[in-house]
C-alpha cells in the first residue's frame, strides 16, 4: 500500500529528502507521494521514513493503493534494478 499526504501537511520540507525512492515531491498546495514509487520504504528501512519525520502525522496509508508486503518488495526490486 502506498502512502498519501493529507491536507494537514504544513509543507515543512522534512519528508522529501527522507524518501529513498524519490516518491515525494512538492504539489500545487502540499507535498504529494507518487504511488508508483512509494514502497513504504520496504527494501530500504523497517518503517516509512516520511512517517517517522513528519511533525504533524499527516501521512497515512492510501486506501486507493492497497498492496501487500510482497507487492511492495517487488516494486522495490523494479525501482532499484
From TrEMBL:
Ranges where the 4Fe-4S ferredoxin-type domain occurs: 1-29, 31-64
Record key words, sorted: 4Fe-4S, Electron transport, Iron, Iron-sulfur, Metal-binding, Repeat, Transport
Gene3D superfamilies in UniProt: 3.30.70.20
Pfam families: Fer4_10 (PF13237)
Cellular-component GO terms for this entry: cytoplasm
GO molecular function: 4 iron, 4 sulfur cluster binding; metal ion binding
Name of the protein in its database record: YfhL family 4Fe-4S dicluster ferredoxin
Source organism: Neptunomonas concharum
